[in-house]
Amino acid sequence: MSTSTNTKNGRQGVNRQLPRLGDLLVRMGALTADDLEWALQQQEADGRRLGEILLAHDKVTGEQMALALAQRLGVERADLKDPDPAAIEMIDARNQRRYAAVPLRVAADGSLEVAMSDPQNVIAIDDLRILAGREIRPVLALPEEVAALLNKHSSMEEFVAEMVESSESDGEFDDHAAVNEIRAAGDDAPVVRLVNSVIVRAIEAGASDIHVEPGPDDMVVRFRVDGVLRQVASVPLKLARGVISRIKIMAEIDIAERRRPQDGRVGLILHGKHLDLRVATLPTVHGESVVIRILDRSNVMLDLSTLGFQPETLTGWERCYRKPYGALLVTGPTGSGKSTTFYGTLNKLNTPDLKIISVEDPVDYRFNGVNLM
Predict the structure, then answer these.
(1) Residues 21 and 128 reside in one and the same domain
(2) CA–CA separation, 102 vs 150, rounded Å?
(3) Which of 151, 182, 211 is the last residue of a domain?
């Protein structure tokens, strides 16, 4: 039986006897002694791992198995909710797949928390420490959870490379192409998948904006997350025309017009959320640049008390916006919450006894009871 201990940086030593998985599950109340005995007999007969047998026959749940394995190995159970995009980028996608390890977040002590199905893999942990430039704190995730994370957070560059290989488009970015050629490029299946993937990944990353910017050599895709722009992919020029065209088709923008700015909107539902995408194009020397603003309609109905105001700040704000006169100035960088604060306040004021007129350029959200101009 292998042995292991945890050190501060998450690497394992070899000086204690590991408890048996079946005994742990029984002590946790997740498994009966009779079921354990049956599973051990199955293991002896076919040579499969005990955990595999128990999961295959629904004797325990995946979460119970993960908790027992984490306790057995002396590590924490991975918290897979809301991984930090910046932490994920600390280890490249190729090495994440190589070591079956996905960064989740930076811990308070500066170490990188990494989800692994084998947190005793000392070689992998040492290599990851070198790659990330900081200590690694392995946390346990089931193999299927690691696989799902790898698929979800796989490098956008890898995805773009796959799209390039499968794309039948072989033309360069041409600002003078015929309209029917541009529309055909926008309907090309790899381009459709690429644009859809960019939008979905931006939403899942919590981005407020997507910037698509053609250059002399390629087209850059950047997400604005927490007010900071991060490059996520570079798209070859052979796909650039199709990507821009696809976005314009989705937003019902005139694809023939490439010499003046245009605006459009796209409505979609993702993970049960109703979202609006506000699309703006801008002609540049290298072709049309596009900015997609991601607007969550559910934010319109947010209560101001849920937006993170300090109690005294919220009290002062409510006192100000309920006055019958005056002006309020709200400033901040992109993604800081100006629109959310504005619409949350409008929602608070929106009662049958008041008439409200809102002058906006552009109008981000639409809802009943407010006259939007």
Answers:
(1) yes
(2) 7
(3) 151
Model pLDDT for residues 216-265, shown as the tens digit of each residue: 888 888 888 777 788 888 888 888 888 898 899 988 988 888 889 999 98
Could you give the CA distance from residue 102 to residue 124 in angstroms, rounded to a whole number? Answer: 12
User: DSSP characters for 66-120?
Assistant: HHHHHHHHT-PBP--SS--HHHHTTS-HHHHHHHTEEEEEE-TTSPEEEEES-TT
Whole-Å CA distances, 84 to 171, 196, 304: 37, 22, 25
What DSSP line would sit under 38-54, residue for residue? HHHHHHHHH---HHHHH
Q: CB burial class (10 A; 0-12, 13-18, 19+) of residue 47?
A: exposed
Domain extent for 173 = 155-295
Give pTM, 2 decimals.
0.54
Give the CATH number of the domain where residue 218 resides.
3.30.450.90
138 plus 170 within the same structural domain: no
Number of other CB atoms surrounding residue 26 within 10 Å: 16
The CA distance from 85 to 74, in Å, is 27
Q: SS3 for 130-155, per residue?
A: HHHCCCEEEEECCHHHHHHHHHHCCC
